[in-house]
C-alpha cells in the first residue's frame, strides 16, 4: 500500500547522494574550467534550471495519465545519471548535469504522489514530513562527504554517492507501489495531453489580471532572481575567493541550514502573530538586502558567517508571501496564484545562475581567484588581492539592488485584499486525476505545496 514514507525514502536517498558530492564537485568544476569557473558554473546551472522550468508541467501532466511510479523512476534515474561521470569524464559530467534539467523535477512528482494518498486535512503534515526529510539530507550529507573526501579521497565519495543513487532506483522499482489507481486516470497509456496542461508559461500569462497579484509576482521575481544565482555559485565563491576549506563549507551549510529551519518555524510564527504578514515580508526582504550586501563587500571569513546568520533570517520571506496569497485568494483560486509564484521561481532558477555567472566573469572574479592562490592567507585573514578589491563579490551587490527594488514594490502590497482571478483564465478539472495535475506542475497544488516547499527547502538555496 502506498504511503508517505515511500516518498520520504526516495527524496532522502536522492538528495543525500547529491549532498555528498558538494566538496568533490567544487574541486572538479575548478579543475575543468580553471579560467572561467564562475561563468561556466552559471551557464550549467542556468541551462538546467530553464529546462526544468520548461519540462515540469509536461511531466506532471503525463504522470496524471501514466501514473507516478514510472515518472519517479524516470526523474530519479536521469537526475542521478551524472554522478558516476564525475570521475569518468568531467566534461560529460557537466554536460549531462545541464541536460538532466529536463527530468530534474522529482519534487513535483513526489508531491503529486503524496496528494494521491492523503486526505486534504492530512496533506500539510505529509508535505512537511517530506520537506523536513529533504532538509535533513542536505544538512548532514555535505559534512559527511567533506570528511570522506579529506580522509579517503574524492573517488570513494563518488562511488558511495553512485551506490546510494542506485539504491534509490532499486527501492522505487521493488518497493514503491503506484499511488494513482487505474480508475483515477483519464485513460491508460494514451490519453491526450493538451498544450495548455504542458505549457510552462500558462500561469505566467495571468499575472496582470489582478493588481495585487502583479505586485506579489514582481516582488517574487526581483527577490528570488538573486537568490537562485546565489544558490548556484555561493559555495564555489566561498572555496575559490574567500578560501574556505571543504570542511568549513560543509559546516557553513549545516549551521545556516539549522538556523534557517529555526527561523522558518519558531521565528516566522512569532513575527506573523506580532507584526503581521506584510511586515514580515518586508522584514525578510530587509534581511536579504543586508545579507547580499555583506556577501558583496565582505572579505573576511567571519563576515561570511555573520552574513549567513542574516541569510537564515531572510528565509522567512517566501513562506510569508505564500501565506498572504493563501489568506487572500479564494479557495478555488489557490492553485492559480500559487502556480504563478512557482512559475516565476522556476524561471528565476534558470535566469539567476546565468546572470551571476556573467557578472562574475564581467568583473574578472576568476582572475581574483587565481591571484588568491599566490598569496596564502594567514590565520583567518583573507589574502592581499581580496582585501584590495573594492567589491569582492559584485553579483551579490547587484542582487542587493534587485531586492531593494523588490522591497519598494512590496510596500504597495495591501495587507488584506481579495485576489480576483476568475475562471475562464484557468480550467478546473473535474476528475480526480486531473486535480492532482496541479500538484505535479511545479507546485500549483491545492495542498499548499509551494508554501511548504518555500519554508522547508529555501535554507539550502541560501
From TrEMBL:
<keyword id="KW-0472">Membrane</keyword>
<dbReference type="InterPro" id="IPR005829">
    <property type="entry name" value="Sugar_transporter_CS"/>
</dbReference>
<feature type="transmembrane region" description="Helical">
    <location>
        <begin position="249"/>
        <end position="272"/>
    </location>
</feature>
<feature type="transmembrane region" description="Helical">
    <location>
        <begin position="155"/>
        <end position="176"/>
    </location>
</feature>
<keyword id="KW-0812">Transmembrane</keyword>
<dbReference type="Pfam" id="PF07690">
    <property type="entry name" value="MFS_1"/>
</dbReference>
<dbReference type="InterPro" id="IPR011701">
    <property type="entry name" value="MFS"/>
</dbReference>
<feature type="transmembrane region" description="Helical">
    <location>
        <begin position="346"/>
        <end position="364"/>
    </location>
</feature>
<protein>
    <recommendedName>
        <fullName>Hippocampus abundant transcript 1 protein</fullName>
    </recommendedName>
</protein>
<feature type="transmembrane region" description="Helical">
    <location>
        <begin position="7"/>
        <end position="26"/>
    </location>
</feature>
<keyword id="KW-0325">Glycoprotein</keyword>
<dbReference type="InterPro" id="IPR001958">
    <property type="entry name" value="Tet-R_TetA/multi-R_MdtG-like"/>
</dbReference>
<dbReference type="GO" id="GO:0016020">
    <property type="term" value="C:membrane"/>
</dbReference>
<dbReference type="InterPro" id="IPR036259">
    <property type="entry name" value="MFS_trans_sf"/>
</dbReference>
<keyword id="KW-0813">Transport</keyword>
<feature type="transmembrane region" description="Helical">
    <location>
        <begin position="92"/>
        <end position="114"/>
    </location>
</feature>
<feature type="transmembrane region" description="Helical">
    <location>
        <begin position="279"/>
        <end position="297"/>
    </location>
</feature>
<feature type="transmembrane region" description="Helical">
    <location>
        <begin position="303"/>
        <end position="325"/>
    </location>
</feature>
<keyword id="KW-0007">Acetylation</keyword>
<feature type="transmembrane region" description="Helical">
    <location>
        <begin position="126"/>
        <end position="149"/>
    </location>
</feature>
<keyword id="KW-1133">Transmembrane helix</keyword>
<feature type="domain" description="Major facilitator superfamily (MFS) profile">
    <location>
        <begin position="3"/>
        <end position="417"/>
    </location>
</feature>
<feature type="transmembrane region" description="Helical">
    <location>
        <begin position="396"/>
        <end position="413"/>
    </location>
</feature>
<feature type="transmembrane region" description="Helical">
    <location>
        <begin position="38"/>
        <end position="59"/>
    </location>
</feature>
<dbReference type="InterPro" id="IPR020846">
    <property type="entry name" value="MFS_dom"/>
</dbReference>
<dbReference type="GO" id="GO:0022857">
    <property type="term" value="F:transmembrane transporter activity"/>
</dbReference>
<feature type="transmembrane region" description="Helical">
    <location>
        <begin position="71"/>
        <end position="86"/>
    </location>
</feature>
<comment type="similarity">
    <text>Belongs to the major facilitator superfamily.</text>
</comment>
<feature type="transmembrane region" description="Helical">
    <location>
        <begin position="213"/>
        <end position="237"/>
    </location>
</feature>
Amino acid at each position: 500500500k502506498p504511503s508517505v514514507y515511500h516518498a520520504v525514502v526516495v527524496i532522502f536517498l536522492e538528495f543525500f547522494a547529491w549532498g555528498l558530492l558538494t566538496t568533490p564537485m567544487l574541486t572538479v568544476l575548478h579543475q575543468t574550467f580553471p579560467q572561467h569557473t564562475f561563468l561556466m558554473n552559471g551557464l550549467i546551472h542556468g541551462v538546467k534550471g530553464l529546462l526544468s522550468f520548461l519540462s515540469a508541467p509536461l511531466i506532471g501532466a503525463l504522470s496524471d495519465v501514466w501514473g507516478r511510479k514510472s515518472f519517479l523512476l524516470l526523474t530519479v534515474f536521469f537526475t542521478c545519471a551524472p554522478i558516476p561521470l564525475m570521475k569518468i569524464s568531467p566534461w560529460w559530467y557537466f554536460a549531462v548535469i545541464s541536460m538532466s534539467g529536463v527530468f530534474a523535477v522529482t519534487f513535483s512528482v513526489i508531491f503529486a504522489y503524496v496528494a494521491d494518498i492523503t486526505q486534504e486535512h492530512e496533506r500539510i503534515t505529509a508535505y512537511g514530513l517530506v520537506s523536513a526529510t529533504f532538509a535533513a539530507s542536505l544538512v548532514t550529507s555535505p559534512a559527511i562527504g567533506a570528511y570522506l573526501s579529506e580522509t579517503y579521497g574524492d573517488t570513494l565519495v563518488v562511488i558511495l554517492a553512485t551506490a546510494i543513487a542506485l539504491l534509490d532506483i532499486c527501492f522505487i522499482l521493488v518497493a514503491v507501489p503506484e499511488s494513482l489507481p487505474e480508475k483515477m486516470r483519464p485513460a491508460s497509456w494514451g490519453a491526450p495531453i493538451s498544450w495548455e496542461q504542458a505549457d510552462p508559461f500558462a500561469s505566467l500569462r495571468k499575472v496582470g489580471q489582478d493588481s495585487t497579484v502583479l505586485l506579489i509576482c514582481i516582488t517574487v521575481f526581483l527577490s528570488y532572481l538573486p537568490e537562485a544565482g546565489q544558490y548556484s555559485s555561493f559555495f564555489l565563491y566561498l572555496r575559490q575567493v574567500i578560501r574556505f576549506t571543504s570542511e568549513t563549507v560543509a559546516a557553513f551549510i549545516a549551521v545556516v541550514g539549522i538556523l534557517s529551519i529555526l527561523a522558518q518555524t519558531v521565528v516566522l510564527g512569532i513575527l506573523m502573530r506580532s507584526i503581521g504578514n506584510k511586515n514580515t515580508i518586508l522584514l525578510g526582504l530587509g534581511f536579504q538586502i543586508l545579507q547580499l550586501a555583506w556577501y558583496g563587500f565582505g572579505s573576511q571569513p567571519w563576515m561570511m558567517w555573520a552574513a549567513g546568520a542574516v541569510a537564515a533570517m531572510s528565509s522567512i520571506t517566501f513562506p510569508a508571501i505564500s501565506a498572504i496569497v493563501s489568506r487572500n485568494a479564494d479557495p478555488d483560486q489557490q492553485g492559480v496564484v500559487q502556480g504563478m509564484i512557482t512559475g516565476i521561481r522556476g524561471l528565476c532558477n534558470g535566469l539567476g545562475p546565468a546572470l551571476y555567472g556573467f557578472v562574475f566573469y564581467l568583473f574578472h572574479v576568476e582572475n581574483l581567484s587565481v591571484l588568491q592562490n599566490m598569496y596564502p592567507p594567514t590565520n583567518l585573514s583573507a589574502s592581499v588581492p581580496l582585501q584590495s578589491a573594492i567589491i569582492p563579490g559584485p553579483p551579490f551587490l547587484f542582487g542587493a539592488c534587485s531586492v531593494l527594488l523588490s522591497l519598494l514594490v512590496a510596500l504597495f502590497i495591501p495587507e488584506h485584499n481579495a485576489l480576483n482571478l476568475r475562471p475562464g483564465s484557468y480550467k478546473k478539472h473535474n476528475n480526480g486525476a486531473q486535480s492532482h495535475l496541479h500538484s505535479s506542475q511545479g507546485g500549483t497544488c491545492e495542498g499548499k505545496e509551494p508554501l511548504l516547499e518555500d519554508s522547508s527547502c529555501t535554507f539550502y538555496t541560501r
